[in-house]
Design goal:
Blueprint (H helix, E strand, L loop, with lengths): L9 H35 L3 H29 L1 H21 L3 H29 L2 H31 L5 H4 L1 H15 L14 H20 L5 H23 L13 H31 L4 H7 L1 H21 L2 H17 L9 H29 L6 H26 L10 H29 L36
Helix pairs in contact: 1-2, 1-4, 1-5, 1-7, 1-10, 1-11, 2-3, 2-4, 2-8, 2-15, 3-4, 3-7, 4-5, 5-11, 5-12, 8-9, 8-15, 10-14, 10-15, 10-16, 12-14, 13-14, 13-16, 14-15
């Protein structure tokens, strides 16, 4: 396995370009689709549940399979699995762009999530496996910075495409990115894999986890119908979740080893993660609709309006991580969710004919400040709460938990807020339900803050600082592979 490529070399630059292109496909896609939802619903005559599934189908397969995707790369070759993920993602994106109805679009979004689960962990793993140890941290920093730029421009790009050539280009734009990425990867990126002996894949665990999420999501989205099928689906989802825990406890090589939760700090921070990213997922899903349906913004205006949050993360998350190193994570993880909760309350001012400068921008600036305060310390604390050899596994679990929390929030919030199937077609009805949803999000964030204050403690002084602190994603925390003795190590 090659791990001596220098960043300044031509090959090093090609590797960085490849990984940025690949990860940007998945990252931008996760931020642009929300802006396109009102236009998709209008074109297909779809109800709110269909829009929820359009957002959630992708997150469902991504959250359920991201740990398995990383393991596939470790065993069969990280470049090979990364390239497969890019091709898969592009093919699914093409299907999304050509979808004749909302059912095909939702199915294609689920296929996109599978591709994302293959390429998302692979992009960073290739950097960790390919670059010389002296250049690795800088390479990861550049990858993170460019990723943050991609996350920041995603809503703007999505709005421009929706108002210009049409919402289908939100997906079709991934095809030329893949056509550029794959040849570069094949020609310039060295193959790497973990040469140690592996046990069998935890396919059953991955399947049970994905099925549990799918059934619970279905039950929440369709719960307003109150049918026997929905009730049985909810029970089956809970049963699948219990079966997942049972299987993971008894497998010799589980996807999610229960022993890692013996660390009270790791468990506590993941509970905080569930609260925080549930609120984030619900906020960004509903705010993109609120700005267009109620405030009367175009898709481009709505996408541009959301720029301050990711811009603040991109500019200041590294400094936030450094501050948490000095003062410990407890204060940032307590104060950050409270700031985000305050932002949710400020969003109550955003109604019909809302002023961007007076109503929208203050809420988004407070939201961005809260995210800056907590995201980097949260990731650092997750990695510092377990042994270094398990850092990659800990990061993967935390990333999957964040995505699952967002998935459940998008499914549950419209139900909790009383949004009917046609709510997004009525400015008045949606506005009232949006206010209730923001109160729910604020409440969940306060719970996360209390949990952090009560349970999070300063990590041991010899815990390593994670290399990936500046990743500007708004849908999940940074994902860091395992590193040991200069190379990736699989659990």
């Amino acid at each position: 396995m090659s791990s001596d490529v220098r960043l300044a070399s031509p090959q090093g630059k090609w590797i960085l370009l490849t990984t940025v292109l690949g990860s940007s496909m998945a990252m931008v896609d996760s931020t642009v689709v929300n802006v396109a939802l009102p236009r998709i619903g209008r074109d297909f005559g779809a109800d709110l549940a269909a829009l929820q599934w359009t957002a959630n189908a992708y997150m469902l397969t991504l959250a359920g399979l991201i740990l398995l995707g990383g393991s596939l790369g470790d065993r069969y070759g990280r470049r090979k699995v990364f390239v497969l993920g890019v091709i898969w993602f592009a093919a699914a994106s093409l299907l999304c762009g050509l979808a004749p109805n909302v059912g095909v679009l939702v199915a294609a979004r689920a296929l996109q999530g599978i591709g994302g689960a293959l390429l998302t962990p692979g992009s960073l793993a290739l950097i960790q496996a390919s670059f010389h140890p002296d250049d690795r941290a800088r390479a990861v920093g550049l990858w993170s910075g460019f990723g943050g730029i991609g996350a920041a421009i995603g809503p703007f790009l999505g709005g421009w495409l929706v108002d210009g050539p049409g919402w289908r280009w939100v997906f079709l734009i991934n095809v030329p990115l893949a056509l550029a990425c794959v040849p570069i990867a094949v020609r310039h990126v060295p193959e790497s894999a973990d040469g140690r002996k592996h046990g069998s894949f935890d396919v059953l665990g991955a399947a049970l986890g994905a099925v549990a999420l799918a059934l619970v999501t279905y039950a929440l989205i369709e719960a307003r119908n109150g049918s026997l099928v929905v009730a049985l689906t909810a029970v089956a989802g809970v049963a699948a979740g219990i079966a997942f825990v049972y299987v993971e406890k008894r497998r010799p090589d589980p996807m999610m080893p229960p022993g890692i939760f013996a660390s009270r700090q790791f468990t506590a921070v993941n509970l905080v993660t569930l609260c925080v990213y549930a609120a984030f997922g619900g906020f960004f899903f509903l705010t993109a609709l609120q700005l267009q349906v109620v405030a009367g913004y175009s898709a481009l205006q709505a996408g541009t309006a959301l720029l301050p949050t990711t811009a603040l993360m991109l500019l200041f998350s590294a400094r936030s991580g450094e501050l948490a190193q000095r003062i410990g994570p407890r204060i940032p993880l307590t104060v950050g969710p409270l700031l985000c909760a305050a932002a949710m309350l400020l969003m109550l001012r955003v109604g019909q004919d809302a002023s961007y400068l007076a109503d929208v921008l203050p809420a988004l600036l407070v939201m961005g400040t809260g995210m800056v305060t907590l995201v980097a310390p949260l990731t650092a604390t997750v990695l510092a709460s377990v042994d270094t050899a398990r850092a990659g596994l800990a990061s993967g679990i935390n990333n999957a938990a964040a995505r699952a929390a967002g998935l459940i929030a998008v499914a549950a919030l419209p139900l909790l807020a009383g949004m009917g199937p046609e709510a997004y077609r009525s400015a008045g009805a949606f506005d009232h339900a949006f206010d209730r949803a923001m109160l729910w999000c604020a409440g969940v964030l306060v719970v996360g803050s209390v949990l952090a204050y009560a349970t999070v403690r300063r990590p041991a002084p010899d815990c390593r600082r994670p290399e990936c602190l500046t990743h500007g994603s708004i849908t999940a925390p940074p994902l860091e592979p395992q590193v040991g003795k200069g190379r990736l190590e699989a659990e």
